[in-house]
Write a structure and sequence with these properties.
- α5 crosses α6.
- The longest helix has 19 residues.
- β8 and β9 form a beta hairpin.
- This protein is 28% helix and 33% strand.
- It is an alpha+beta fold.
- It has three domains: 183 residues, no CATH class; 49 residues, no CATH class; 87 residues, no CATH class.
């Protein structure tokens, strides 16, 4: 049995466009955070009436617009900035408020939310549930942005293989045209192992960061145009520049997929200036991987594109399908062979050694 809640064509304004080292699309944690917040709304409002939980979601992008500008020709794009808090704050001290650098964007996405247990509801109760979900969605933020409109909320269920095939077609109709975000972390691991195999002992050993940059950097290679009787190029030798393709085919993009702890867990109230003084806190750093955008029409399974949380000691990750199991095995192996991978750092010692 499988059941999904489809939130079709969500218009979001001023979503966070910066995710770790990257920018251009929100981190996947922003969408899973929205799913978790929606799940808490349902459980708080209805208690045990709906015996289910929202455990993950698929992300499908329809259009996006980053709020950037180009100061001059061939210059890098820059984010459009504003003064925050609003200008009214100026009246308190007579000074201008600061410009806090941030990256914003408008986008339209669809979410296919997974339910861990199937709800057995009548047609009338299903419509009531869908309207309730829409009301909750407008109360929440998605990736830090405000939800302006949701085209439709639809609860779909399937038990047999035929019903699952029909449900897949319905999901495609509700979310097309669009591109679904896939987890391709295995591409990164395979490419890193390939770099190690090709490594020359006289050169510096490649790192995982080098492998990741091969997926997200635009690279060109110069081929010297040697003249007659010239064996080596010099400063005056002309060259043809050729674009270097990425290690794998597809619409591949850098992607932030979670966090890793870099400190111990501190008790509530122990760390100053935290938003929540009743919850333990921990310092973390962003984890980056590789993702791929693929047309919704090519989907053969919804379960394989659902992003879910995965916790393992200091790791807090977002993974899809079989990649989650593979990653869990890799982390288990790394614990046994290399304690430095998950070594707990004392925050005070880290500050002293900075």
């Amino acid at each position: 049995m499988s059941q999904y809640l489809v939130l079709s064509h969500i218009d979001v304004q001023n979503a966070n466009s910066i995710a770790g080292f990257t920018w251009g699309f929100p981190a996947i944690t922003g969408f899973l955070g929205f799913t978790h917040a929606l799940n808490r709304k349902i459980s708080q409002q209805f208690g045990g009436e709906y015996d289910t939980a929202l455990t993950g979601c698929a992300v499908i992008s329809h259009k996006y617009q980053n709020k950037v500008y180009q100061p001059k020709q061939y210059a890098d794009l820059e984010f459009i900035q504003s003064r925050n808090p609003p200008v009214l704050e100026k009246n308190k001290n007579g000074k201008k408020v600061p410009v806090i650098e941030e990256g914003k964007m408008n986008l339209t996405v669809s979410l296919v939310v997974e339910l861990d247990k199937q709800l057995l509801l009548t047609d009338e109760l299903i419509k009531q549930f869908e309207q309730t979900i829409l009301g909750y969605c407008y109360q929440l933020r998605l990736a830090g942005g405000s939800i302006l409109n949701i085209k439709q909320a639809k609860l779909l269920s399937a038990n047999t293989n035929e019903q699952k095939a029909m449900m897949l077609k319905k999901i495609k109709r509700l979310t097309m045209p669009g591109f679904v975000l896939l987890d391709q972390s295995t591409y990164l691991q395979d490419h890193y192992q390939e770099l190690l195999r090709k490594h020359n002992a006289n050169d510096e050993q490649p790192t995982l960061l080098d492998a990741w940059l091969d997926f997200c950097a635009l690279k060109s290679k110069a081929i010297p145009k040697l003249v007659e009787d010239q064996t080596e190029p010099n400063a005056e030798t002309n060259a043809d520049w050729y674009y270097q393709p990425k290690p794998k085919n597809g619409y591949l993009v850098p992607l932030m997929t979670g966090y890793k702890a870099i400190s111990q867990v501190y008790e509530e109230g122990q760390v100053a200036n935290t938003r929540d003084k009743t919850t333990p806190s921990c310092f973390v750093e962003a984890i980056h991987s590789v993702g791929e955008w693929k047309g919704v029409h090519s989907l053969t399974s919804i379960d394989s594109v659902i992003w879910r949380y995965q916790h393992y000691q200091q790791w807090y990750l977002c993974r899809q399908g079989s990649n989650a199991t593979e990653l869990g095995n890799q982390l288990s192996d790394s614990t046994e062979t290399n304690d430095q991978v998950i070594q707990t750092l004392n925050f005070n010692d880290a500050l002293n050694n900075w």
